Amino acid sequence: MAESNLDLSFLGDFDWWHLATILILIVGAAFVAKLLTIYLKKSLTDKIKRSQLDLLLKVVNYSVLVLAALMLLPVFEVELGGLLVAGGFLSIVIGIASQSVLGNLISGVFLIVERPITIGDNINIGDVAGDVADLNIFSTIVKTYDGVYVRIPNETVFTSAITNYVAHVARRFSYVVGIPYDADAGRAIEIIRGVILEHPFALKNPEPTIYVDELADNSVNIKVMIWAPASEWWGVYTDLLWKIKAELEQNGIEIPFPQRVVWFQNELALGRGVRSGEMSDSHPDYSFPRTGADNAAPPGPDVDDDEGR
């Protein structure tokens, strides 16, 4: 009968302490993996897709199991020196090769936990502005105002300044309304205030702010600042602007436009002289002065040249 080459001599050194250590590590790893799974399910169920959540849970479970296995190796008298060196080199190679991938993964986890943005938010990240269409582990999808979908790596999202226009329930916008200098500014302010208060989505609290802001070249500029629900502010912005203009015009206050009056003194004097029939010596002579060359006779034909022909 052939002898087995499997060396089981290390089992002779096992005692109840080793068995207890192994059982504790196995049960502890399973318990920790279960707790992490339950916590992640409760925290991320409504934040990411089910497929992405399942993938994340598997990664967490396998990571806990690998850590428990490494902790069990000394119990079996396995030398970890060479394994740690090989693992160190391997981790360096993998880290360099997948630096951006790991950065996006870690940033995605932080974004999911911190939640600075959620699906449906109207945001601005760098040069990209629009609504968040999807939030994945590795990237964020933004639908721009033109209907174009832009994929932004999560590392870029996490390290960039994020402007979230709907994080607050209300949003303020403003106009600059110009009126003529001879118009009653107080009356114009009351008309504008009345138009705003009649709008169903213009908030009464905080109340609108209306005041004379600038005495410009061609108009008295009135600053109008209005609060509206964050989900309705664009409709309120476009609706109120035209209503304010129409109401001011109905009350005899027109919106002025830039004007310039330019005076040309010489042309005006010339125009007055022409209308009165005064075409006298006072009319300026714009002709060029004559020179001696103007009175000279044209050169005659060259006789020598004609004879040579």
UniProtKB/TrEMBL annotation:
Lipid bilayer topology: Multi-pass membrane protein
Keyword Membrane recorded: yes
Domain Mechanosensitive ion channel transmembrane helices 2/3: 58-99
Subcellular location: Cell membrane
Pfam family for this entry, one: MS_channel_2nd
Cell wall biogenesis/degradation keyword on record: no
Transmembrane stretches, start-end: 16-39, 59-76, 88-113
One annotated GO molecular function: mechanosensitive monoatomic ion channel activity
Assigned GO CC terms: plasma membrane
Disordered: annotated span: 275-309
Domain of life assignment: Archaea
Domain Mechanosensitive ion channel MscS: 101-166
UniProt keywords, alphabetically: Cell membrane, Membrane, Transmembrane, Transmembrane helix
InterPro entries: LSM_dom_sf (IPR010920), MS_channel_1st (IPR049142), MS_channel_C (IPR049278), MscS_archaea/bacteria_type (IPR045275), MscS_beta-dom_sf (IPR023408), MscS_channel_2nd (IPR006685), MscS_channel_C_sf (IPR011066), MscS_channel_TM-2 (IPR011014)
PANTHER family to which the protein is assigned, alphabetical: SMALL-CONDUCTANCE MECHANOSENSITIVE CHANNEL (PTHR30221:SF20)
Record's protein name: Mechanosensitive ion channel family protein
Organism annotation: Methanofollis aquaemaris
